[in-house]
Amino acid sequence: MSELFKKTSDDLFPFRPLYLNWLNSTYLRPRRAAKKSLLDLRNEYVIIMPINAKEDPQFIFELYSDANLITVCDRGDERAFCDVIVDPINGYWDLPAKTFDMFNRLCEGIHEYKVFIKMDFDIFINKDYLYDVITFMAENSDKRIYFGDNNYVDSEFKQPVMNGKIYAITSKILQDYCTCDIEKPGTGLEDYWLGYTIHNCTDSKNYTQADDIFQYKSHEKEIFHKKYGDYPVKISLGTIR
Questions:
Q1: Which domains does the chain have, with CATH numbers?
Q2: Record's superkingdom (predicted)?
Q3: What integer is the mean pLDDT of 107-116?
């Protein structure tokens, strides 16, 4: 099939010519607008994805092959894709300890990015939307921005806690976290622990309202957790607790 087409140059033609050897004519197609690519933002952000020993994220690696993504694995997991190793945990309710270790590793070595995203491996997200989120947060990285789906908190604690499937913070929040004295947590919900921790940390700094944390609410219609369905495609990922 390839022999039916002749090479053209975008530098020579204002449109994209398509020559068809079996027809006596030339069709001109309007130049397509450049699609947003996460590759263009690779120096602005990093996605941190925790993986346990029973999970195989190969499909996600293909889905997000254009993303700047690092994996966090348990000690003893020797699979080649593991980028960061942390102490193993006993189960789901020990995830706060894994998140604690993960953020401490960020404090030790990764500071050049403006946006830090934690994402579960069983997430489908509209990449154009993710591109816009990263762009907005990177352009406003001088602010403390906390992105995600705000969980309802039935307690005296009124600050936003973003759902653990995906959340993001600007580098300002990470800098605060890295300078606060934070104890290793016990059992519980990792997203609640992180929300409490970063708010307690910034509160201890006595910032003005302009320097406090801004909540950036996610558009949930652009995010699919564990399953995606749109006829005729149906995909499921992850495990059911």
A1: 1-32 (no CATH), 38-236 (3.90.550)
A2: Eukaryota
A3: 86
Q: How confident is the model at residue 13 (pLDDT cuts 50, 70, 90)?
A: very low
Q: Note the pLDDT of residue 132.
A: 94
Its pTM stands at: 0.82
Give the pLDDT confidence of 44-61 residue by residue, as tens digits.
Answer: 999 999 988 888 888 888
Which H/E stretch holds residue 105?
helix 95-109
The first and second tokens of residue 164, run together, are 């653990």
Q: Which residues contact 217 (CB under 8 A, 6 or more apart)?
A: 148, 149, 150
3 state SS of 98? helix
DSSP class of 43: T
Q: Which residues contact 113 (CB under 8 A, 6 or more apart)?
A: 43, 44, 45, 46, 171
Count the Cβ atoms, other than its own, within 10 Å of residue 123.
20
Nearest to 225 by CA among 235, 210, 213: 235
Q: Which secondary structure element, helix H or strand E, spans residue 214, and what is its range?
A: strand 213-217
